[in-house]
Design a protein that fits this description.
Length: 472
């Protein structure tokens, strides 16, 4: 039986970063799918390449956690900075999320006039800047060292933000902007759903600031698909693709891993499965630990298109509608276009990924026939509104279209939900940490601290790497 110092289950962003940071150890990484990257993967279907999810790559800049990790791994990604991070369209109002604050503020004042817009957005930007300037952010449990390190982080955050740390997003909106229109509120909520998977009513001021501020950072287009970043991070990693982990059993000094192909031993295990799905790998005591975390039902509905067009488009758009999308919990959808000159992604026309938010339970409850019917209904609705805005694209130019639900994601990447629960002062003690009560067993990914997206998952991976190697 093969023995390893470190076994990583799953090749999502978190698992891949940890593997890259620990490639000098005797290690192994398991991926149940043929594509690497999970939600950040790139896959091929009908002869065309598609990005599985939204493709904004943010935070590759000096003094940011992502560049810091990439530098440690020794990898420079093939990326192009987007001049406009996202073009947001709502009732024919257009706001380009650009890094230049004054240009952005001018657009906001024109489309969503408010005497305190400057106060609101300057504060949002200032909080974000202060957060990423905090050094050695840490959050972990189940050992005295981990708790003490986490306590020092809380002390630094409290010193930095003072009473703002305890404010809710909603209260800050009312305090600065007053009773804003439903349209303005919808604009804010649509942006937050992309970044923190929640609306303003459910998050703290700090979470809202981090979620709304990411276009003030450098946002990039990834050449040849988001999955190429994962593939390159893992170039020197021992990868076992198409190998699903069935069961893990903790023995005295190691773990016994049973896969769909073989059995292995490992001293340490990092699970890049969700905190909710991790329970399926264990029996009894460890299973009970994971069962205490309530399932986050939020998922995604994603439509993939190949479009025969030579028109030039931005990389990212967000369309905000007046009504919710059928079978979804959002009134907006996010669009990612490949670049026309991208020889891989655009070899047969534009590769387009359109994503919105839905509940996993919505699709799980349907019969096979009803599932197909509702899936077609949702896809048709999204396509109609997509073509309404992009009037320079005709339906006959769409070479291929198909969609994915939470059930599709479960089948291919082993998860139904997208992200964890909103983090705030009230919920922080219940937030899962990278460390578990069981020696040698760790978690990484978007369902533990620090949450979703490249920056959140990278921060969590950085914390885990310190715990794994006792670098504190």
């Amino acid at each position: 039986m093969q023995e390893y110092d470190l076994a990583i289950i799953g090749s999502g962003i978190g698992g891949s970063l940890i593997a890259g940071l620990n490639k000098d150890k005797k290690h192994i990484l398991f991926e149940k799918d043929s594509n690497l990257g999970g939600c950040a993967s790139t896959f091929k279907r009908f002869g065309n390449y598609y990005n599985t999810g939204a493709t904004t790559f943010v935070g590759y800049e000096d003094n940011h956690i992502i560049k810091d990790i990439f530098d440690k791994i020794g990898y420079v990604p093939n990326i192009i900075e987007s001049k406009i991070a996202i073009r947001t369209i709502q009732n024919k109002k257009i706001v380009d999320r650009v890094r230049d604050f004054e240009e952005f503020l001018s657009q906001m004042q024109e489309n969503y006039p408010n005497p305190n817009n400057r106060i609101f957005w300057e504060k949002i930007k200032k909080i974000d800047k202060k957060f990423w300037q905090i050094k050695n952010i840490h959050f972990a449990k189940y050992s005295l060292k981990s708790y003490l390190k986490s306590l020092l982080t809380f002390k630094d955050i409290l010193k930095t933000f003072e009473m703002d740390l305890f404010k809710s997003a909603d209260s800050f909106i009312k305090e600065t902007l007053g009773d804003i229109s439903l349209e303005y509120q919808s604009f804010i909520d649509a942006q937050l759903l992309i970044t923190v998977q929640s609306k303003a009513k459910d998050v703290s001021l700090l979470s809202m600031a981090l979620g709304l501020s990411y276009p003030f950072h450098k946002v990039f287009y990834v050449n040849n698909g988001m999955g190429t970043i994962i593939e390159n991070i893992l170039k020197e990693v021992n990868i076992h693709k198409n190998e699903e982990i069935i069961k893990i059993r903790k023995l005295k000094n190691h773990f016994l891993i049973k896969s769909s192909k073989d059995e292995y031993k490992a001293k340490d295990i990092v699970l890049n499965t969700t905190i909710y799905d991790s329970k399926n790998l264990f029996d009894e005591k460890i299973k009970a630990y994971y069962e205490k975390f309530d399932f986050s039902d939020q998922s995604a509905f994603t439509t993939y298109l190949t479009i025969n067009s030579k028109k030039v488009f931005l990389e990212h758009y967000q369309i905000i509608l007046k009504q919710n999308i059928p079978n979804c919990i959002s009134n907006s959808f996010f669009i990612s276009f490949s670049k026309l000159q991208d020889e891989k992604m655009s070899q047969n026309g534009y590769s387009v990924t359109i994503s919105t938010h839905s509940k996993a339970s919505t699709w799980k409850a349907l019969s096979k026939e009803e599932y197909k019917k509702q899936k077609e209904l949702t896809q048709k609705f999204i396509l109609e509104h997509f073509l309404d805005y992009f009037d320079n694209i005709k339906q006959e130019q769409i070479i291929k279209i198909f969609s994915a639900t939470s059930m599709t994601f479960q089948r291919f990447i082993g998860r139904q939900n997208c992200g964890g629960k909103a983090i705030n002062v009230k919920s922080i003690l219940q937030t899962p940490s990278c460390k578990t009560p069981f020696k040698g067993l760790y978690n990484v990914g978007d369902t533990i601290f620090a949450g979703q997206g490249w920056p959140g998952v990278a921060l969590g991976a950085s914390i885990l790497n310190k715990e794994l190697n006792e670098e504190f």
